[in-house]
Design a protein that fits this description.
Number of strands of chain A: 8
Radius of gyration of chain B: 19 Å
Distance between the termini of chain A: 30 Å
Radius of gyration of chain A: 16 Å
CATH topology of chain B: Peroxisomal Thiolase, Chain A, domain 1
Number of helices of chain A: 1
Strand order of the largest sheet of chain B: 3-2-4-7-1-8-11-10-9
Shape of chain B: globular
Order of helices and strands of chain A: HEEEEEEEE
Largest sheet of chain A: 5 strands, mixed, barrel
Strand order of the largest sheet of chain A: 4-5-6-8-7
Oligomer: heterodimer
Number of helices of chain B: 14
CATH superfamily of chain B: Thiolase/Chalcone synthase
Strand content of chain A: 25-35%
Strand content of chain B: 15-25%
Number of domains of chain A: 2
Largest sheet of chain B: 9 strands, mixed
Chain lengths: ~130, ~400
């Protein structure tokens, strides 16, 4: 990994497409950003290094969506949640391959790297999800 | 620079003195306003505000306008500031749209306060408008979600009700809050709405109706959600020392604060409270030299029933975790210690997003001038409004004092 890769959301998703979950660590104050950002919101530094994060975490909260926008209509009812990973980092996402009755705050979940969406349109971000 | 302009420094110098005064207010009928464009609905609110204050000469006196409006997508119309001023008969004055999602007109109100306090404009109109009902539910769901984080929330299918459902689930887990307690908010606000001739829905509902409605985003059901509504609202502000030139019954704004938080819900420290509300409330209470117990009535941002419960806690109306008990006690209903959302709230009066902030101010204006009809809170003197944007990345709190 080189230091040249920008600490951006676009780059976060590029890494994700390569099956890597990466956060940005501020070299000045040590704050870890997931997603990475080019300006540390804690100390306002622009100096970061990449840090590999484990995709294993626990479910902090969840919901089951029954009314969705056009784009997600076909998937209802689908579960989404916020998952806490190592170092207290939190990230939201869909929770798949689970019986929705079994969703429980505190349960262990693992990030499943998704595949890239349609190549013609912005954005070309993979849709990761979580599974038990 | 006078310290009153700074967000968290120095507001105590005000000692509860008025920042600005409301001399008039107007609100369109809220509901499904077929065949009308936003600008036409706004003209209804403007006409009421102009008519209510005979001493005001709108074309001569009004020097600026700030209009809350959230989405161009609804009518394929941006540049709303000037469009609204045009249709309100105020062409020529500076007119600017403010956008802070569902807090757009709360932010417009603050912009108006900045304008008056700066001395650049003695009389300003602040308001807001949204025309929503001509769009399908899927379209509205998509447009509203634009107020949330795109790359991690919208991109992964998290809707707006979904974000509040995530907070509600966390609150239920942490404090034992129940779906029934949330439904009680709907029952109360529909009762209040039944007393408001301008509310979108003017019908009482039963607890059973609310509890058996279908899920939108578990644990939130249809009756936990505010309404998709068309509507507009505005208020007219001036300097406190000029207020009596226009009316014998001005309402003073004695506290005004706005705060922000991370755009993504997932990055917040707490999932069971809205920190921006806590920050804004503290500043506004300090400015007004008041405490939560001094507030006699409030219009809070019940975009979802659970959001009203969270507001009780974040505004200090009860202890953290005890909002479920507060709604059960009946104290936030008309006749209680601190009636909340006497207008019917976003739940029953309706939630034309850009219009909501100043529609809350309109209700407090009516209440503090004794013009709230069947839903009048007797002898009310001090009111509060709480207007949040998105999942809480913006919160605007205002405190008002009547003069009658």
């Amino acid at each position: 990994m080189t230091a040249q890769e920008p600490f951006t959301i676009e780059q976060f998703y590029k890494f994700l497409g390569q099956q890597k979950l990466m956060a940005g660590k501020c070299l000045k104050c040590g704050k870890i950003h997931l997603p990475p950002r080019p300006l540390c919101d804690n100390c306002l530094s622009q100096d970061f290094e990449w840090m590999s994060i484990s995709g294993k975490g626990k479910l902090l909260t969840y919901t089951v969506i029954h009314i969705a926008s056009e784009q997600f209509k076909a998937l209802v009812p689908y579960a989404v949640g916020i998952v806490e990973l190592e170092n207290g980092l939190k990230i939201p996402g869909m929770i798949q391959k689970i019986n929705q009755e079994q969703l429980k705050i505190g349960m262990g979940l693992t990030l499943d790297f998704g595949t890239c969406s349609s190549p013609q349109q912005w954005p070309q971000w993979p849709r990761y999800c979580f599974k038990p | 620079m006078p310290s009153i302009y700074r967000h968290q420094r120095g507001p105590k110098v005000l000692n509860g003195k008025p920042l600005v005064s409301i001399i008039s207010a107007g609100m369109s009928k809220f509901g499904k306003r077929e065949g009308l464009l936003a600008r036409e609905i706004f003209s209804e609110a403007a006409f009421e505000a102009f008519s209510r204050c005979p001493k005001l000469e709108p074309k001569k006196d009004i020097k600026a306008m700030f209009i809350g409006h959230m989405g161009e997508a609804y009518e394929h119309q941006g540049h709303t500031g000037s469009a609204i001023a045009d249709w309100a008969g105020l062409t020529g004055i500076p007119a600017t749209r403010t956008e802070a999602a569902c807090a757009s007109s709360g932010a417009a109100l603050r912009s108006g306060i900045y304008a008056v306090l700066s001395g650049l404009a003695d009389v300003v109109v602040v308001g807001g408008v949204e025309k929503m009902t001509h769009r399908t539910t899927s379209e509205v769901t998509e447009y509203l979600a634009m107020a949330s984080d795109y790359p991690f929330e919208q991109w992964h299918g998290i809707t707006f009700p979904g974000l509040f459902a995530l907070m509600a689930t966390a609150h239920m887990h942490a404090y034992g809050t129940t779906e029934e307690q949330m439904a009680l908010v709907a029952v109360k606000n529909h009762y209040h709405g039944s007393l408001n001739p301008k509310a979108h829905l003017q019908k009482e509902i039963t607890l059973q109706t609310a509890m058996t409605s279908r899920y939108v985003a578990w644990p939130l059901k249809l009756y936990d959600c505010s309404l998709i509504t068309d509507g507009a609202s505005c208020i007219v502000l001036t300097k406190p020392e000029l207020a009596n030139k226009y009316t014998d019954q001005p309402v003073h704004i004695v506290g005004s604060a706005q705060a922000s938080d991370t755009i993504g819900l997932y990055e917040r420290k707490s999932l069971t409270s809205i920190n921006a509300t806590k920050l804004a409330a503290k500043t506004a209470y300090d400015m007004a030299h008041l405490k939560p117990k001094d507030i006699e009535l409030a219009e809070v941002h019940d975009c979802f029933t659970f959001a009203e419960l969270m507001a009780y806690e974040d505004l200090g109306f009860c202890k953290i975790g005890e909002s479920g008990k507060l709604i059960e006690s009946g104290q936030t209903c008309l006749g209680g210690k601190i009636p909340v959302n006497t207008s019917g709230g976003l739940k029953a009066k309706g939630h034309p997003v850009g219009a909501t902030g100043t529609a809350q101010a309109y209700e407090i204006y009516l209440q503090l001038t004794g013009q709230a009809g069947k839903r009048q809170v007797k002898d009310a003197k001090v009111g509060l409004t709480h207007n949040i944007g998105g999942s809480g990345a913006t919160s605007v709190v205002h405190i008002y004092r009547g003069t009658q």
